[in-house]
């Protein structure tokens, strides 16, 4: 291959978008916890430490980052999960070191290495069959979930909309017809549908209906996310009629709650139809252009954008849910489609 893999470019963009989300949190959200939410410092420290561990598992060069190693040990022993006091400045320094290491790892990520088993001995993933490709894909999902998490903290602290997932400039550069990582990205989007559904189903009523000041209703967030999926993959790509509920969505209008049963039905129908279609795409099909705004773009590039968009909103939904007593879903989950595609 002449160019970097789509999966690698998407991870580079994901880590940059995560840092952009952290920078977007204003001063009131950079200190103590806002209600039941984890602090922004903890979220950044968690992403840095987990990304560092996953790189080690995938046999990247060098030992674990010292700060991350100590942070993980403290998290295991000192306080309940998610409550470790963490300086956001220290966490960001660690994150930037880990990101540099991740970028060096991605420099050497070729098609063969995608399917090399990850070094998972002694972990809960030891018998999962995960490969280096899966670790990269999971890193993407994890970074965007927690970027969405940070946008909720930012909003409660008075910041405006960040517009995740941003430009994704590396991801949008190109797509080769023989890129073996493109079907892996399609599998990642199928898993994003699963995770968005899990997050929606776990929404307590106040979070779903918009009873938390400054935050969009969870039902609106789901409709917003699904509107793109239906438009691209069911209407444009497959020629189906638009979903009746999603066709009413207007991104220029003020956010409003939607009937939960109708949203659930649209979610099931839209993602099932799109997921079945995505499952049949190979690398060449994913390199085929599709209308994207006033131009055309490879299907695989827009699939990558959809995955980033949905994981961001799944993370946002989980945080909004926690403000009304919702349970922590430990997003992202197992990513079963991605696991199978990367073996």
Annotate the secondary structure layout.
Layout: H1 6-24, H2 40-57, H3 66-77, H4 88-107, H5 111-114, H6 132-156, H7 182-201, H8 205-209, H9 218-236, H10 260-279, H11 283-286, E1 289-292, E2 295-298, H12 299-322, H13 336-341
Antiparallel strand pairs: 1-2
Describe this structure in words.
The chain has 343 residues and is mostly helical. Helix content is 57%, strand content 2%. The chain has 13 helices and 2 strands; from the N terminus they run αααααααααααββαα. The chain has helices at residues 6-24, 40-57, 66-77, 88-107, 111-114, 132-156, 182-201, 205-209, 218-236, 260-279, 283-286, 299-322, 336-341, and strands spanning 289-292, 295-298. The chain has a two-stranded antiparallel sheet with strand order 1-2. α1 (6-24) packs parallel to α12 and α2 (40-57) packs parallel to α4 (88-107). It is globular. The two termini are 20 Å apart. 51% of the residues are buried. The model has no long low-confidence stretch (mean pLDDT 93).
């Amino acid at each position: 291959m002449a160019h970097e893999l789509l999966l690698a470019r998407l991870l580079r963009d994901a880590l940059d978008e995560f840092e952009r989300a952290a920078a977007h949190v204003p001063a009131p959200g950079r200190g103590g916890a806002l209600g039941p939410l984890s602090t922004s410092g903890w979220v950044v420290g968690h992403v840095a430490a987990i990304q560092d561990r996953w790189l080690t598992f995938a046999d990247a060069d060098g030992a674990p980052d010292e700060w991350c190693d100590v942070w993980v040990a403290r998290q295991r022993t000192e306080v309940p999960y998610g409550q470790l006091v963490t300086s956001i400045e220290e966490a960001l320094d660690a994150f930037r070191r880990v990101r540099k290491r991740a970028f060096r790892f991605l420099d050497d990520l070729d098609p063969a290495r995608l399917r090399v088993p990850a070094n998972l001995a002694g972990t809960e993933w030891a018998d999962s069959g995960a490969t280096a490709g899966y670790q990269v894909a999971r890193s993407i999902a994890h970074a965007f979930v927690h970027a969405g998490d940070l946008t909720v903290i930012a909003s409660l602290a008075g910041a405006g909309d960040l517009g995740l997932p941003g430009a994704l400039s590396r991801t949008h550069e190109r797509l080769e017809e023989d890129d073996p990582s493109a079907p892996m990205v399609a599998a990642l989007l199928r898993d994003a549908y699963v995770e968005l559904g899990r997050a929606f189903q776990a929404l307590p009523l106040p979070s779903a209906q918009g009873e938390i000041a400054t935050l969009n209703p969870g039902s609106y967030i789901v409709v917003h996310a699904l509107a793109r999926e239906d438009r691209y993959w069911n209407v444009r790509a497959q020629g189906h009629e638009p979903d009746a509920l999603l066709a009413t969505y207007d991104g220029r209008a003020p956010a409003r709650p939607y009937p939960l049963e109708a949203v659930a039905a649209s979610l099931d129908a839209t993602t099932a139809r799109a997921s079945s279609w995505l499952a049949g795409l190979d690398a060449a099909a994913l390199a085929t252009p599709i209308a994207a705004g006033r131009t055309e773009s490879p299907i695989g590039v827009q699939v990558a954008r959809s995955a980033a968009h949905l994981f961001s909103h799944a993370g946002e939904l989980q945080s909004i849910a926690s403000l009304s007593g919702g349970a922590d879903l430990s997003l992202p989950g197992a990513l079963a489609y991605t696991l199978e595609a990367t073996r």
